[in-house]
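Late entry, tetrahydrodeoxyuridine complex.
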Amino acid sequence: MTDLLADRREALIAAARIAMDTAYAPYSGFHVGAALLFDDGAIVTGANVENASYGLSLCAETVACSIATHAGRRGGLLAVAVLGGTGGRVDAAISPCGRCRQVLNELAALGGTDPLVICVGEHEVVEMRLSVLLPNAFGPANLA
Ligand code: THU
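Prediction complete; structure with ligand written out below:
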């Protein structure tokens, strides 16, 4: 049996890096790219989209989850790669913000997966499962 995540890991990180360059972040200047890997090998990306009303800005992970959900995905989330920085460079590794952890959990919970979150920095990579970032999550099962 092949290890899909191992096979697609570099492509996932590369996709997040490409997505980062499509960020609309004129206010913070901090560009973030995210890439989601699904169990059919598909990769769905997103980048942060800011707003003149600052608090309405959307993070890269939330944009990626919205695109995937709109495309009909309801689970199958195996991994997430996220990276960000200023001036077109990747800075230190960042992990998804609290709201994005909850948004990721929705897609993960629908398929019963615990995705690996790969936080890519200029000099380091930090990995952890989503359940470590968001223990005891509230999710779809609580409303069933
Ligand atoms: N940002 C993300 O896109 N993802 C995160 O997980 C953390 C923060 C964005 C939001 C805002 O556009 C910029 O980074 C600075 O906070």
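The two ends are 34 Å apart (CA to CA). Will revisit in the morning.
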